[in-house]
Amino acid sequence: MSSPARIQIAAPHLNGNESKYVQECMDTVWISSAGHFVTDFEQAFAQFCEVEHVIAANNGTTALHLALVALDLGPGDEVIVPTLTYIASANAVTYTGATPVFVDSEPDGMTIDVEDVRRKITPRTKAIMPVHLYGHACDLTSLKALADEHGIPIVEDAAEAHGARADGKRVGSVGLVNSFSFFGNKIMTTGEGGAVTTNDAELAAKLRLLRGQGMDPQRRYWFPVVGYNYRMTNIQAAIGLGQLEKIDEKLAIRKDLAAWYDERLGAQPEVTIPKPPAWSESVNWLYTVRVDVRTSEARDRLIELLEADGIESRPVFYPMHQLPPYLDEQAVFPVADAISIGGISLPTHTQLTESDIDRITERLLHHLPAVRS
Ligand SMILES: *Cc1c(COP(=O)(O)O)cnc(C)c1O
User: Fold this and answer.
1) What contacts 43, CB < 8 A, 6 or more positions away?
2) How far from 51 is each of 40, 89, 109, 130, 177, CA to CA, in Å?
3) What is the pLDDT of residue 19?
4) pLDDT of residue 4
5) Which one of 49, 127, 151, 333 is least enclosed by Cβ atoms within 10 Å?
């Protein structure tokens, strides 16, 4: 008897015009960062995000760095970041010389706790970075009101939430400058890739200058500032355009996957499913639940048992204050710490079927009593 195929946690799905567009790059030899796919992709992504300007970048981390550099951050400045995030959010702040100041998350959507943001604002706070974690939108309405009260810009890290909405607004359209990632495991991909979004024309021009080594657009090889080479290639953009043409289909499948998981796990007392608030429209990047275990070792054992059954899963992100570069043993973040003990991300990609979700949840519920005892 052959065993069923291994279920991967994430997988790119290139079922549109990606190959055709990449072939065009090859045939025309426009394989570097000049070429029409870059501008076509930027325009199409701007329309999708309901935002004025998109500046494509070579990955999501450089996009986020660019967004922060455009705000002239430097040593002595503080940026408020949730401790429960992927390390790129905090590292992008560190690259500028500014200091990330961590805050807790709220339990239902696992996103930034607005009341904790309020407590951590100081005269040095130069930006607030909500992260739309695992596809769940942050409470942008409350955050924007708080940020405006203090005159502090919002920089959304929307790397995991292409297409999500908060109170009807697309993520990546509310902050002053915002960023996305198109890494291979994200909701849409360009292989490696990223983008900055903004509605501010002046900032958009500054971002383009900084992305292209700082070269004056009116005077070739004249560099008024220290810039970066963070350009996206035409090949990446060709893949991205193919992905974007099918984004609605991708988001619909992810909605089904989350509903199937909810149905099978929602009534289990030992499993806490994500409960994005009614004002949000989640895009379900990685379906992430909390299992009721006393130690993270028990959760890790569950991941091993699932792997032995041919099912890939992974622990929730380690909160930043637990990691060596940002270690703070005194810090207490009750919600992030609790999520980090029992949090587990389950397979979520657009080639999964309802019977895959049956198999994953059946195996998870089968192994759970053993690791809890
Ligand atoms: C993926 C991700 C990034 C960075 O994206 P890369 O394209 O991998 O550099 C930033 N922030 C968050 C929250 C992410 O998940």
Assistant:
1) 54
2) 15, 22, 24, 18, 11
3) 98
4) 77
5) 151
Tell me how far the alpha carbon of residue 14 is from its chain's centroid.
Answer: 20
Strand segments (E) across 11-66: 53-57
In sign, the C-alpha dihedral spanning 154, 167, 199, 31 is positive
* 194 in Cβ contact with 64 (< 8 Å): yes
Q: What distance in Å separates the CA atoms of residue 198 and residue 159, rounded to the nearest whole number?
A: 15
Task: State the amino acid at position 348 in one-letter form.
Answer: T
- The yes-or-no verdict on residue 1 having pLDDT over 90 is no
Q: Of 79, 84, 86, which is best to mutate to test ligand 1, by the most ligand atoms within 8 angstroms of its C-beta?
A: 86
The CATH class of the 247-372 domain is alpha beta
Domain 18-244 of CATH type 3.40.50.300:
no
Query: Which residue is it, tokens 């790059």?
Result: 25
pLDDT at 2 over 80: no
Q: Show me where the domains of the chain are located.
A: 18-244, 247-372
Tokens standing for residue 102: 């961590």
Q: Are 234 and 37 in contact (CB under 8 A)?
A: yes
Annotated catalytic residue 186: yes
- Model pTM greater than 0.70? yes
Q: If you search the block for the tokens 């550099």, which residue do you land on?
A: 69
Pocket of ligand 1 (CB under 6 A): 59-61, 64, 85-86, 88-89, 131, 157, 159-160, 181, 183, 194
**CA atoms of 371 and 156, how far apart (whole Å):** 37
pLDDT at 373 over 90: no
What pLDDT, on the 0 to 100 scale, is given for residue 290?
Answer: 97
How sure is the predictor about 237, in pLDDT bands with cuts at 50, 70 and 90? very high
Catalytic residue among 144, 186, 206, 246: 186
